Structure formats: structure tokens, C-alpha cells
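Posting this for the archive.
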Amino acid sequence: MRKEIEKAVALLEMKDPQATEQALALLQGTVFSFSMKVCGQREDAEDTMQEVLVKVLPYLSRFESPRALLVWLYKVAKTRCLMSRRKSKFAPKQDLSLDELMPDGRELLRLAQEGPVNPESLAIRGQQAKRLREAIQELPPQYRIVLVLRDMEGLTEEEVGDITGLRAGTVRVRLHRARLFVRQRLARQDHTAHHGKRSQVESHRAGISSPQPKPPSCKALFAQLSNYLDEQLDDSLCENLEQHLEGCEACKAFLSSLEATIGQLQRLPPKTLNKAAADKVRKEILSRYPYPLAIHGTK
């Protein structure tokens, strides 16, 4: 549950015009932040924010809890964002293959040589934030939604399931593949940035530019890495994975790079909403529905 939603509900219960406007400002920010992450375009995010607020305001009294409001807000915003994205040439629709997302033997060797990274040491500066947002937008929509809701909006697996209509197992599978996709894109960009075209040519001449086979013993673990990091792996599988990691520096380094990617997603600064434009939209909406009722039953 996002704190903004709970705070908005508390303000609405005051049944005061000023508190109501403050509550709507919180809802505006929540919807805009989510929409920017999914749509990637400010105009689409602003349109989504306005449409969602127009729809929700007359019906606030019908929601039985803050959680019901949260699920409804995200459902409507998700649908609106995906409709906007379908018009974009940057909206891939393919499924993600786990086999294509795991590193090949050559990358595993490089990871083993470089060693594990410290996730906390990776600051998200301007260029890195730009690359991260671009990688998110390259995700197929059905994976992007899950990644944004879970890792960037901080919702629970159950809440994500209610918003998307997906079973818990499907949420976990899509989340894992989305994380691997973003990690892969960032790793490729970082490698190119550090080594440039010259190293690519030298690698080709050396005959090592083609992908190398994936070690079977490592491949079996990759489907479980997100469950392990999210502490959702049963004890026996967890023990097997940790035993493998003890003897495999490449997998240990890969796991730390995935953990670092998740940390960057969680810490990515949100795009800010234009305050003047938001105030104008909010006042226009409130002029139509000046006295929305409070939500019943906040427990």
C-alpha cells in the first residue's frame, strides 16, 4: 500500500474542502508518477492523470477501503497508458525468453573476472537514469506494467495481481524476466561505453564475438534468482542455489548485478509533475464535483 493513498483517504475523511484538495493532489502525484514510468511520455502521463481524476472523484464514497481505491486507480491508469502506448512505435509486444535473457558463457567469464558489484555503491546520475528509463520503455507492455508496479511503485505481489488480473506465479515470472531484460540492456550499454567499438572489433578478430554456450549447471538456477532475492524460495531450493553460488564466481557476480539493477529501479528518481498545471487541472475538476464524500471503512 502506498502511503500517499492512505494519507489521501485520511484527508478525505475530514470532509473539508481544503483537505479534499490536498487529497486529490496526492492522488494526482501517484497517478502521474506511475503513468510516466509506464507511458514514458509526459503528455500521455498528464492526460492519464486528468482522466483518472475525472473518473474517480464522483465515486470516492463507493470505495470500501484505501486498498480498493489503490487498485482502482492503478487499473484505470494502466488501461489508459497501454492505449496510449499502442500508438507508439516503441511498444514491442513480444514475449521474453528466459534463455535469451541469461548471460552466455563469454559474459559469465567476464562477470567472474570482474567480481560482484556492491549494489549500494551504484549512484543513479543523469545519464544512468536516462539509460534506465530507456531500458524500461523497451520492455514489452505486459512485462513493463509488472516491473513498474512491483519494483518502482513498491506494491505487493497481491496488489499487482489484483491490478493486472494475473496469478501470483505469473506475476513472479514476468517480474523476473523484466528485471533480467533491464539488467541485460544496462550491461550491454555499460560494456560498450567502457570498451567502445575498438574492443568489439578486436573481439571479432579474436574469434570470440559469437555467443558462447550457457553452462547447464548455471542455467538451471536462473529462473529462481528473483525468488531468491525476494526471499520467496523454499528452503530446499534456497539451499541448493546457495551451494551452487559458493562454487561459482560467475553466478555470484551475476546475482549481484541483478540485485544492483533492482536497487536502481527502486531508487530511480520520479519525474516531477508541473505544479501550476496540476493545480489548474485539480481546480477545474473540483469545480464540477466540489464535495466528494469520504471513503468508508479505512481498515
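The radius of gyration is 22 Å. The chain has two domains: 3-91+270-288, 98-267.
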